[in-house]
Amino acid sequence: MSGFGNSMQLIARAVTALALLLCCGSDGAMAQQKTPAQAAAAGLPSLPVTLEQALYLIRSTLLTLNDANRTGNYTVLRDLAAPDFQARNTAADLALNFLDLRRRNFDLYGAALLAPQFSDAPALDQRGMLRLAGYIPTRPQQIQFDLTFQTVAGQWRLIAIAISTPEAASPQPQAQVTPVKPAVPAQKKTP
Q: How many CB atoms neighbour CB 172 within 10 A?
């Protein structure tokens, strides 16, 4: 059974790496983005990445973290990150940082199924780092994320990560609507 698990991990890593290359590392994909002048002319805000790229970065990061939490092995998460992240964090450091999620067996797979809600639009900070912050609307707890990425060799790579799981706000009760019977047309009486 452990051979099957190792094979699945290798396949997951290969798929993640391939998707990262296809989605974020392609010069052709970057060339298709609107320049700031084109976006301004079209009346659209200029985003540093497409929404699809932002979605990919969020999902791949959270799912990689989920795999690390499930296995207790944070080396892949660390190895896929930017060199500065790797220099600041050992796999053991990451295991300590995410100990609470791991102990609670908190499942981050909601990131694969639900669309993230951004608290701020994807933006570059003054150092050229991409910040993606928001939440995944899971219940009973949300997955709040604050991720920062750095461009390394033409690819966005994780430089900072913060995850929390607060209780989701309870949905507003909807007003009860009393169904109205459809009007029945009056029947003509024939003499």
A: 6
> Phi and psi dihedrals of 171, rounded to 5?
-65, 145
Task: Write down the pTM of the prediction.
Answer: 0.67
Consecutive 10-residue averages of pLDDT for the chain (191 residues): 47 43 39 40 66 96 97 97 98 97 94 94 94 96 97 97 92 54 51 54
Tally of CB atoms within 10 A around 109? 16
